[in-house]
Automatic annotation (TrEMBL):
Gene3D superfamilies cross-referenced by the UniProt entry: PGBD-like superfamily/PGBD
Name of the protein described by the UniProt record: Peptidoglycan binding-like domain-containing protein
A Pfam family hit: PG_binding_1
InterPro entries in alphabetical order: Peptidoglycan-bd-like, PGBD-like_sf, PGBDSf, YHYH_dom_bact
Organism from which the protein derives: Fusobacterium nucleatum subsp. nucleatum
Keyword Signal: yes
Length: 116
């Protein structure tokens, strides 16, 4: 009886601290408690500054190079996307997860549209 009760206690404890698993295609989600957007995908929770995962090594192909915020804004404007929701609108119109974060997939799609 004590063994079953102990096992039940452990299971309930684990469930109370587990992650719900609702992440986008890039492994990220909005943190409702702190208001930020962060990623896990096999690492501790972390941000992706400028859309780049700090745990991944940089690649040398042009499709995976990062873009500065100014470059992203300028490139999106050439496609007609301006304002605060430009990234999310571009993502939505191009079949990406519309999270408003210019990650690798978004930058790759921008480069494809630019013909790079």
């Amino acid at each position: 009886m004590k063994k079953k009760l102990f096992t039940l206690f452990i299971l309930i404890s684990l469930l109370a601290f587990s992650h719900p698993g609702r992440t986008d295609a890039s492994g990220g989600h909005r943190d409702r408690k702190n208001g930020g957007y962060h990623y896990h995908h096999g690492y501790p929770a972390h941000d992706h500054p400028n859309g780049v995962c700090p745990y991944e090594s940089p690649k040398t192909t042009s499709s995976s190079k990062t873009m500065s915020k100014a470059e992203i804004k300028k490139n999106l404007a050439t496609f007609g996307y301006t304002g605060d929701n430009a990234i999310a609108e571009f993502q939505r119109d191009n079949g990406l997860v519309a999270d408003g974060v210019a990650g690798k997939r978004t930058i790759k799609k921008i480069r494809e549209r630019l013909g790079e």
